[in-house]
TrEMBL record:
The keyword Cell inner membrane does not apply. It holds the Pfam family MFS_2. The chain crosses the membrane at residues 12-34, 46-65, 93-111, 123-146, 158-175, 195-218, 254-277, 283-300, 312-330, 342-367, 388-407, 419-438. GO terms for biological process: carbohydrate transport. Keywords: Membrane, Transmembrane, Transmembrane helix. The lineage of its organism: Bacteria, Thermotogati, Thermotogota, Thermotogae, Thermotogales. One of its GO terms (molecular function) is symporter activity. This is Major facilitator superfamily MFS_1. GO terms for cellular component: plasma membrane. The keyword Membrane applies.
Length: 454
């Protein structure tokens, strides 16, 4: 029987999450900023800006195409990991193979090879971002699947999910300070673009070291039960999507990620364009947002055990919807712009804690329940399918939101930004409606757990 993971090794696992959170921040959240900077940011033009095809921008197409590739490869990597016989283990081995290129390609998209050859830089952008997402999938999908196997019951999986939510948020918060660090380096004499590039490179190096920790310290064969998969790769994916509760879960998750990614891509513009504040305020807003969310991590854990994860997710959708209504009217309230930016941070804190902790624990429970019912323990397939839908949501957002930001013009403008917030709001409402049909009681009954109804 597999041993339980000691608490300090749980933290080693969680620090791997901090590493990939930091490494993936810039491409996921600042690529549009780098290639389509606000007017107040003096970056050279590396690619053609504005609409280029069917209402889409080059950077939007790069995000969309790479995210689609990323989503498609998730189930492929998942099935390969589930069926792997690597010496280090079917999860740990994949992490070891992918960790270095994952870190290197996190900053290469921000180092375009030419100062004025837009075609070459466009090709470089597409190639490096696509390769980045391949190695990210090779690390992240087995990493999440590992949680299902390192956690031996729903409460332990909830604990692991909480720890990686904490470290993810820390990594994200550090990532959001890229604009502040850029400004500090500018004051030290660096050109704006060089300052930004240096910060992203440092993120890649620090993230690489942190991502090594679970590989070094966690012996997969010692702490995980040895399970087999008796299905072919395609069959395993199909049967996962035939699980009704899983299907409902991943579609509400898709809707959530479309809305959240749109707001994340737009935050620096909401702050600088709608509120007229300096770009550094966007870093402060995100920092406050995530620091406040930490306050709610313990209550979310307690309430999830008592009332179930589904109810808390529904509350999260409601609060985010209120938040996005507020964002759509930023700059119109009879309150100082600084206060308005802080209200956005406060409203976001609770749902960020809820959505940061619970979805991974829910997928782990679904995967374990399926394994007990069928004898096929394929956690990577479930996490791969979940991240496939998540990334499809991010793909949709990457395609449509840059175009919404510049709606009717060739530059980011007020009307486009307000409409983008309303679009995000609509996705949150749809996610709430879909989650109503999720049957959490059935899953917990299979696992032998229950929560109090109030």
């Amino acid at each position: 029987m597999a041993e339980r993971l000691p608490m300090w090794k749980k933290w080693m696992y969680a620090l791997g999450q901090l590493g990939w959170s930091l490494v993936s921040f810039a491409i996921g959240n600042a690529l549009v900023y780098f290639y389509m900077p606000p007017e107040t940011v003096n970056f050279p033009q590396f690619i053609q800006r504005g609409i280029v095809f069917a209402g889409l921008t080059i950077v939007g197409l790069a995000l969309g195409v790479s995210r689609f590739f990323d989503a498609v490869t998730d189930p492929i990597v998942a099935t390969l990991s589930d069926r792997s016989k690597l010496k280090l283990g079917r999860r740990r081995g994949f992490l070891a193979i992918s960790v270095l290129p994952f870190a290197i390609f996190s900053f290469l998209p921000f180092l375009p090879p030419s100062a004025n050859n837009f075609a070459l830089n466009t090709a470089w952008l597409f190639a490096t971002v696509i390769i980045f997402y391949w190695f990210m999938t090779m690390y992240v999908t087995p990493f999440f699947a590992w949680m299902s196997e390192l956690g031996h019951d729903p409460n332990e999986r909830l604990l692991l999910s909480t720890l990686i939510s904490i470290t993810w948020a820390i990594g994200y918060v550090i990532g959001t300070q890229v604009y502040l660090f850029q400004t500090l380096l500018e004051k030290a004499g660096f050109e704006p673009v060089r300052a930004f590039q240096l910060v992203v490179i440092v993120y890649g190096i620090i993230g690489f070291v942190l991502m090594l920790l679970p590989i070094i310290f966690i012996d997969e064969k010692r702490y995980c039960e040895s399970h087999t998969v008796n299905e072919g790769g395609l069959e395993a994916i199909i049967t996962a999507f035939k699980e009704k509760n899983f299907l409902i879960f991943v579609f509400q998750d898709l809707l959530y990620w479309v809305g959240l990614t749109g707001i994340s891509l737009g935050l620096v513009y909401y702050v600088t364009v709608l509120l007229g504040l300096p770009k550094e305020q966007a870093s402060q807003v995100q920092l406050i947002m995530f620091l406040l969310s930490f306050i709610f991590y313990v209550p979310v854990n307690f309430l999830a055990k008592k009332f179930g994860k589904k109810k808390l997710l529904m509350i999260g959708f409601i609060i985010f919807a209120i938040d996005f209504v507020f964002v759509s009217m930023l700059g119109k309230y009879n309150v100082s712009p600084i206060i308005q930016s802080y209200i956005v941070a406060i409203l976001s804190a609770i749902p960020l804690a809820i959505f940061g902790i619970l979805p991974n624990a829910m997928v782990a429970d679904i995967a374990e329940a399926h394994g007990r019912e069928t004898g096929n323990y394929k956690a990577a397939v479930f996490f791969g399918a979940r991240t496939f839908m998540q990334k499809m949501g991010q793909t949709v957002a990457g395609l449509i939101f840059p175009s919404l930001f510049i709606l009717g013009k060739n530059e980011v403008n007020e009307m486009g930004l307000r409409i983008s917030a309303i679009v995000s709001l609509s996705f949150m409402i749809l996610g709430y409606i879909l989650l109503i049909f999720y049957n959490e009681k059935k899953i917990l009954k299979t696992l032998g757990f229950a929560f109090e109804e109030k």
